[in-house]
Amino acid sequence: MHDWSGMRKKLEQDYLAEPLRGHIRYFATTYKHSHDQEGRVAILLDDCEIFGGNYWDPWPDDILYSHEDPDEMAKQHYEGLNQRDFYEAFHIFDTQSIQESLCSENRIVRLFAVLDRRVGRRTLTTLRDTLSFQTPAFQKLYDIRMRAEAESRKPQSAMTEGAGGAVFLCFKTQNILLFLIRI
Questions:
Q1: pTM of the full predicted structure?
Q2: Would residue 147 count as lying in a domain?
Protein backbone atom coordinates (compact mmCIF):
# COMPACT_ATOMS: atom_id res chain seq x y z
CA MET A 1 0.00 0.00 0.00
CA HIS A 2 1.24 3.50 -0.81
CA ASP A 3 1.55 6.31 1.70
CA TRP A 4 -0.71 9.32 1.19
CA SER A 5 1.91 11.60 -0.37
CA GLY A 6 2.81 8.91 -2.93
CA MET A 7 -0.85 8.28 -3.74
CA ARG A 8 -1.55 11.99 -4.11
CA LYS A 9 1.47 12.47 -6.37
CA LYS A 10 0.37 9.62 -8.61
CA LEU A 11 -3.23 10.83 -8.75
CA GLU A 12 -2.43 14.51 -9.36
CA GLN A 13 0.72 14.26 -11.49
CA ASP A 14 0.85 10.85 -13.15
CA TYR A 15 -2.79 10.00 -13.76
CA LEU A 16 -4.69 13.31 -13.90
CA ALA A 17 -5.63 14.59 -17.37
CA GLU A 18 -3.56 17.57 -18.50
CA PRO A 19 -6.45 20.12 -18.65
CA LEU A 20 -7.35 19.31 -15.03
CA ARG A 21 -3.86 19.71 -13.55
CA GLY A 22 -3.76 22.56 -11.10
CA HIS A 23 -7.55 22.48 -10.76
CA ILE A 24 -8.27 19.04 -9.26
CA ARG A 25 -6.69 18.15 -5.92
CA TYR A 26 -7.10 15.13 -3.70
CA PHE A 27 -7.29 15.62 0.04
CA ALA A 28 -6.95 13.21 2.96
CA THR A 29 -6.37 13.76 6.62
CA THR A 30 -6.27 11.58 9.70
CA TYR A 31 -7.45 12.81 13.07
CA LYS A 32 -4.66 11.32 15.17
CA HIS A 33 -6.10 12.44 18.49
CA SER A 34 -9.55 11.00 17.94
CA HIS A 35 -10.30 7.73 19.68
CA ASP A 36 -10.32 5.72 16.43
CA GLN A 37 -7.85 7.84 14.39
CA GLU A 38 -10.26 8.07 11.49
CA GLY A 39 -10.06 10.92 9.00
CA ARG A 40 -11.70 12.32 5.91
CA VAL A 41 -11.03 12.35 2.18
CA ALA A 42 -12.18 14.65 -0.61
CA ILE A 43 -11.75 15.58 -4.24
CA LEU A 44 -11.43 19.34 -4.68
CA LEU A 45 -11.99 21.49 -7.76
CA ASP A 46 -10.25 24.85 -7.46
CA ASP A 47 -10.19 24.37 -3.66
CA CYS A 48 -13.95 23.64 -3.40
CA GLU A 49 -14.96 20.17 -2.26
CA ILE A 50 -16.99 18.37 -4.91
CA PHE A 51 -16.87 14.87 -3.49
CA GLY A 52 -15.83 13.66 -0.06
CA GLY A 53 -16.69 11.89 3.12
CA ASN A 54 -15.49 10.29 6.30
CA TYR A 55 -16.18 7.32 8.52
CA TRP A 56 -18.74 9.16 10.66
CA ASP A 57 -20.65 10.64 7.72
CA PRO A 58 -20.76 7.67 5.36
CA TRP A 59 -23.77 8.58 3.24
CA PRO A 60 -22.57 9.59 -0.20
CA ASP A 61 -23.83 12.88 -1.64
CA ASP A 62 -25.68 11.07 -4.42
CA ILE A 63 -27.88 9.40 -1.80
CA LEU A 64 -28.37 12.48 0.39
CA TYR A 65 -29.32 14.81 -2.44
CA SER A 66 -31.27 12.45 -4.66
CA HIS A 67 -35.01 12.74 -5.23
CA GLU A 68 -35.27 8.97 -5.13
CA ASP A 69 -35.99 6.97 -2.00
CA PRO A 70 -32.77 7.01 0.10
CA ASP A 71 -33.24 3.43 1.31
CA GLU A 72 -33.60 2.18 -2.27
CA MET A 73 -30.60 4.22 -3.41
CA ALA A 74 -28.57 2.83 -0.51
CA LYS A 75 -29.32 -0.73 -1.58
CA GLN A 76 -28.29 -0.01 -5.17
CA HIS A 77 -25.33 2.35 -4.86
CA TYR A 78 -24.04 2.58 -1.30
CA GLU A 79 -20.38 1.83 -0.81
CA GLY A 80 -19.61 4.23 2.02
CA LEU A 81 -16.76 6.67 1.62
CA ASN A 82 -14.00 6.90 4.14
CA GLN A 83 -10.24 6.84 4.13
CA ARG A 84 -9.96 3.09 3.96
CA ASP A 85 -12.35 2.92 0.98
CA PHE A 86 -10.46 5.72 -0.75
CA TYR A 87 -7.07 4.03 -0.23
CA GLU A 88 -8.44 0.65 -1.27
CA ALA A 89 -9.98 2.17 -4.41
CA PHE A 90 -6.66 3.78 -5.29
CA HIS A 91 -4.87 0.45 -4.93
CA ILE A 92 -7.41 -1.21 -7.25
CA PHE A 93 -7.16 1.68 -9.73
CA ASP A 94 -3.36 1.66 -9.65
CA THR A 95 -3.09 -2.06 -10.39
CA GLN A 96 -5.57 -2.53 -13.23
CA SER A 97 -6.06 -1.22 -16.76
CA ILE A 98 -7.98 1.97 -17.41
CA GLN A 99 -10.74 0.02 -19.20
CA GLU A 100 -11.21 -2.20 -16.15
CA SER A 101 -11.28 0.90 -13.93
CA LEU A 102 -13.98 2.56 -16.05
CA CYS A 103 -16.14 -0.56 -15.70
CA SER A 104 -15.30 -1.23 -12.04
CA GLU A 105 -17.96 -2.09 -9.49
CA ASN A 106 -16.26 0.36 -7.12
CA ARG A 107 -17.61 3.86 -7.74
CA ILE A 108 -14.48 5.56 -6.37
CA VAL A 109 -12.33 3.67 -8.88
CA ARG A 110 -14.64 4.92 -11.65
CA LEU A 111 -14.23 8.49 -10.34
CA PHE A 112 -10.44 8.18 -10.54
CA ALA A 113 -10.76 6.70 -14.03
CA VAL A 114 -12.91 9.46 -15.55
CA LEU A 115 -10.26 12.02 -14.55
CA ASP A 116 -7.39 9.90 -15.90
CA ARG A 117 -5.19 11.14 -18.75
CA ARG A 118 -5.37 7.71 -20.44
CA VAL A 119 -9.08 8.25 -21.14
CA GLY A 120 -9.23 9.98 -24.51
CA ARG A 121 -11.90 11.97 -26.32
CA ARG A 122 -13.43 8.95 -28.06
CA THR A 123 -13.76 7.03 -24.80
CA LEU A 124 -15.27 10.08 -23.10
CA THR A 125 -17.77 10.41 -25.96
CA THR A 126 -18.66 6.74 -25.63
CA LEU A 127 -19.16 7.16 -21.87
CA ARG A 128 -21.82 9.83 -22.53
CA ASP A 129 -24.24 7.02 -23.46
CA THR A 130 -23.81 5.36 -20.04
CA LEU A 131 -24.18 8.47 -17.88
CA SER A 132 -27.77 7.70 -16.92
CA PHE A 133 -26.51 4.50 -15.25
CA GLN A 134 -23.73 6.26 -13.33
CA THR A 135 -23.86 7.92 -9.93
CA PRO A 136 -24.39 11.69 -9.75
CA ALA A 137 -20.80 12.09 -8.49
CA PHE A 138 -19.51 10.37 -11.63
CA GLN A 139 -21.77 12.51 -13.82
CA LYS A 140 -20.45 15.66 -12.14
CA LEU A 141 -16.80 14.68 -12.63
CA TYR A 142 -17.54 13.65 -16.23
CA ASP A 143 -19.02 17.10 -16.86
CA ILE A 144 -15.99 18.79 -15.26
CA ARG A 145 -13.65 16.70 -17.42
CA MET A 146 -15.57 17.46 -20.63
CA ARG A 147 -15.59 21.20 -19.89
CA ALA A 148 -11.85 21.15 -19.19
CA GLU A 149 -11.19 19.25 -22.43
CA ALA A 150 -13.29 21.75 -24.40
CA GLU A 151 -11.46 24.71 -22.82
CA SER A 152 -8.08 23.21 -23.61
CA ARG A 153 -8.98 22.87 -27.31
CA LYS A 154 -10.15 26.47 -27.72
CA PRO A 155 -7.73 28.50 -29.81
CA GLN A 156 -5.86 31.12 -27.83
CA SER A 157 -4.49 34.16 -29.64
CA ALA A 158 -2.27 37.08 -28.80
CA MET A 159 -1.31 40.12 -30.86
CA THR A 160 1.95 41.95 -30.48
CA GLU A 161 3.38 44.83 -32.46
CA GLY A 162 6.95 44.52 -33.65
CA ALA A 163 9.49 46.97 -35.05
CA GLY A 164 8.40 49.00 -38.08
CA GLY A 165 4.68 48.52 -37.35
CA ALA A 166 4.62 44.77 -38.18
CA VAL A 167 1.88 42.92 -36.30
CA PHE A 168 2.45 39.39 -35.12
CA LEU A 169 -0.59 37.25 -34.40
CA CYS A 170 -0.01 34.02 -32.51
CA PHE A 171 -2.62 31.25 -32.25
CA LYS A 172 -2.28 28.29 -29.96
CA THR A 173 -4.56 25.33 -30.57
CA GLN A 174 -4.00 21.73 -29.47
CA ASN A 175 -0.39 22.55 -28.53
CA ILE A 176 0.41 23.83 -32.04
CA LEU A 177 1.59 27.42 -32.37
CA LEU A 178 0.73 29.31 -35.55
CA PHE A 179 2.31 32.68 -36.29
CA LEU A 180 0.82 35.12 -38.75
CA ILE A 181 2.78 38.18 -39.68
CA ARG A 182 1.25 41.28 -41.22
CA ILE A 183 3.61 43.89 -42.49
A1: 0.70
A2: yes
* Structural domains counted in the chain: 1
- Whether 48 is in a domain gets the answer yes
Whether 51 contacts 111, CB under 8 Å: yes
The residues near 142 (Cβ < 8 Å, ≥ 6 apart) are 114, 124, 127, 128, 131, 134
| Domain enclosing residue 110, as ranges | 4-153
Tens digit of each residue's pLDDT, the chain (183 residues): 468 888 889 998 999 999 999 999 998 887 776 656 677 888 888 988 887 777 556 555 554 444 455 454 444 444 456 778 888 899 999 999 999 999 998 888 999 999 999 999 889 988 888 888 888 888 888 999 999 998 887 765 554 555 555 544 455 554 444 444 444
Residue/partner pairs of 17-25 with CB below 8 Å, 24 or more apart: 17/115, 17/116, 17/117, 17/119, 17/145, 17/148, 17/149, 18/117, 18/152, 19/145, 19/148, 19/149, 19/151, 19/152, 20/115, 20/144, 20/145, 20/148, 23/148, 24/115, 24/144
120 assigned to some structural domain: yes
Residue 182 domain-assigned (yes or no): no
